[in-house]
Design a protein that fits this description.
The structure is a homodimer.
Chain A (H helix, E strand, L loop, with lengths): L1 E5 L6 H11 L6 E6 L4 E4 L6 E4 L1 E2 L8 E4 L5 H4 L3 H11 L4 E5 L2 H7 L7 E2 L6 H5 L4 E2 L4 E4 L2 E4 L4 H14 L1 H10 L18 H8 L2
Parallel strand pairs in A: 1-2, 1-6, 2-5, 6-7, 7-11, 8-9
Antiparallel strand pairs in A: 3-4, 10-11
Chain lengths: 206, 206
């Protein structure tokens, strides 16, 4: 299965690496990281980490699974015609077109989520609505072949669902066990419905 | 807070990027990725992704939080005297010395876990015992300043605990909310105690 990640400057690393760690373990997986300015390195949100795009996006013409991660860099890409055209051209023959966190803003700006339920980071729901999508507060939202995940860490859950849908429950369970995904968060603060109100206000203001 | 990640060829990407996504959000965080052969790129287990080490490990002499991720590449490093000496020298002044997955094999080979409870990926418990550590089947194991996490995704839980211990519960909760860590795994197969026996056998045989 050919899996393609679009990466870019000011990406959130876990948005890409969470799904990557799951999907790269599918039988026969071939994973390509490409970027608008690649081949070369992109830097994460806070610039502390570089991820390598082995390809320029222009040299990647198809994907069975396309993953568009999020990060502050998505805002510039929402107005980048070359990126939006590329996303549409890969989407034309993809089996799954997916996003994590604010990656859905790029799918939305490309017109792919128009009229569809979709999700994003909880702080970006209004921006997502502006693209014509119907923001939906679930961790993973599927609309036909379009699958969008909520913020950052939700990409792991999305990728396990994709693994099950694409390769079967037994494959997905084997991957989950291989990455020992038996989460035990120390707090129940991972969504704005659950975190203390003062914590929600603090994060919203960042 | 100065946070240092040791990265290397055949690393498991999520082992590093899970804790990175949490710890890089601590107030005043400065994160450095270094490698035995850096500066330069290391490739992950399956070679599909490159991560950039901005520094050679030799140029990093101290860390408040040291994180040693895992991956198949750890086996070679367990016999690499330069790496083990470096880990010991950074450990000498660290506030926390930590590992994810088979990263604990490196801490163990360096002699840092001798007589201490520690954990690793569930398939590597015997190898960990060989270093003198006491393998302990918990997701995160703390022994004084030594904190080890179980396989791959456990690094996220470990890093949130570290965030709480080092910076306070409110900071940890804000980070958890920012990365929307409200896990909803589609299966309950993330540990060998929970996965179906045939899945456990399959993953053990890989």
């Amino acid at each position: 299965v050919d899996i393609v990640f679009l990466i870019f400057d000011r990406i959130t690393a876990l948005d890409a690496v969470g799904p990557y760690e799951v999907l790269s373990r599918l039988p026969g997986a071939r994973v390509t990281f490409c970027s608008p300015n690649g081949p070369g390195t992109v830097r994460t949100d806070n610039e502390f980490l570089g991820l390598v795009a082995d390809q320029n996006m222009a040299s990647v013409t198809a994907a069975e699974i396309l993953v568009v991660p999020g990060g502050f860099g998505t805002r510039a890409l929402m107005a980048d015609r070359a990126v939006l055209d590329w996303v549409c051209s890969v989407d034309a023959s993809s089996r799954w077109t997916t996003s994590v966190c604010t990656g859905s803003l790029i799918l939305g700006a490309a017109g792919l989520l128009n009229g569809r339920p979709a999700t994003t980071h909880w702080t970006a729901m209004d921006t997502l609505a502006g693209t014509g999508a119907h923001p939906t507060r679930q961790r993973v939202v599927r609309s036909d072949k379009y699958v969008t995940a909520a913020g950052v860490s939700a990409g792991i859950d999305m990728a396990l669902l994709l693994a099950a849908w694409d390769a079967g429950d037994d494959v997905a369970q084997a991957v989950q066990l291989a990455i020992e995904y038996d989460p035990q968060p120390p707090f129940d603060a991972g969504s704005p419905d659950k975190a203390p109100p003062e914590i929600v206000a603090r994060v919203r203001g960042q």
